[in-house]
């Protein structure tokens, strides 16, 4: 089953200016129609950003609100990704949740990338980049339609060494969250034939164990 349609509203594709609200809307509607045609119910709607901490463009609420009737008609949920160095407890996330509650929409949510919990940080100059805690997800899960199950190093004893998967999965189970967990490998040796698929296999075994499926 198709899980998540990935797309980007590339607000800075025109040199020297950002896309207008109408141009952004047109791009968004095109992708919503494609997602629907391909059978996707969830879209990872990446918004154009203006700085190192991934603050979205100022007019994001305008074109997202314009697109809500289209998303509702096509039964697609638009979900911007919460990605390192953004923290789950941040103004950006608060703004997303406030938008959802103000509009009352069911067609806009968030996607939590598990990289926000990683012990390995990006070390961006002048940016405070500390890992979020898995428990920070709890108030956000009602608005979360998918999560990127980021992993970078699966050990031989089937432990992900840089992300606290035992705590992450326990929070999801305790909260009875239902949604997509999308494996996303961003570790080493991706150019070595078979290495990434072996890491993926190990992650899936770990996930099944943590989800009490084995």
Compact description:
The protein is 34% helix and 14% strand.
Q: Could you state the order of secondary-structure elements as H and E?
A: EHEHEEHEEHEH
Counted by DSSP, the helix tally is 5
Assigned CATH class:
Alpha Beta
- State mean pLDDT (0 to 100 scale): 95
What is the fold-level CATH name, i.e. the topology?
TIM Barrel
**What is the CATH architecture annotation?**
Alpha-Beta Barrel
CATH homologous group name: Divalent-metal-dependent TIM barrel enzymes
Helicity, in percent?
A: 25-40%
Number of domains: 1
Structural class: alpha/beta
Q: How would you portray this structure in words?
A:
- The chain is α/β, with parallel strands linked by helices.
- The strands form 2 sheets. The protein has a 4-stranded parallel beta sheet with strand order 4-5-6-7, with helices on one face. The protein has a 3-stranded parallel beta sheet with strand order 1-2-3, covered by helices on one side.
- The protein contains 5 helices and 7 strands.
- α2 links the parallel β2 and β3 (77-78).
- It starts with a strand and ends with a helix.
- The relative contact order is 0.12.
- The chain has a single domain (5-210), classed as Divalent-metal-dependent TIM barrel enzymes (TIM Barrel), CATH 3.20.20.150.
- It has helices at 21-38, 60-74, 91-103, 165-174, 195-210, and strands at residues 5-8, 42-46, 77-78, 81-82, 110-113, 144-151, 180-185.
- The chain is globular and about 50 Å long.
């Amino acid at each position: 089953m198709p899980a998540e349609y990935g797309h980007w509203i590339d607000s800075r594709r025109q040199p020297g200016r950002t896309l207008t609200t109408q141009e952004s809307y047109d791009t968004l509607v095109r992708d919503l129609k494609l997602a629907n045609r391909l059978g996707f119910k969830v879209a990872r709607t990446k918004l154009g950003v203006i700085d190192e901490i991934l603050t979205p463009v100022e007019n994001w609420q305008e074109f997202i609100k314009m697109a809500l009737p289209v998303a509702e008609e096509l039964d697609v949920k638009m979900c911007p990704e919460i990605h390192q160095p953004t923290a789950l407890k941040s103004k950006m996330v608060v703004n997303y949740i406030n938008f959802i509650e103000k509009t009352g929409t069911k067609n806009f949510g968030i996607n939590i990338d598990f990289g926000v919990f990683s012990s390995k940080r990006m070390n961006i100059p002048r940016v405070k980049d500390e890992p979020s805690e898995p428990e920070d997800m709890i108030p956000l899960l009602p608005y979360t339609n998918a999560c990127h199950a980021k992993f970078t190093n699966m050990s031989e004893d089937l432990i992900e060494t840089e992300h606290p998967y035992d705590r992450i999965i326990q929070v999801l189970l305790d909260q009875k969250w239902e949604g997509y967990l999308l494996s996303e490998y961003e570790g080493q040796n991706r150019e070595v034939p078979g290495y990434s698929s072996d890491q993926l296999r190990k992650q899936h075994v770990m996930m099944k164990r943590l989800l009490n499926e084995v």
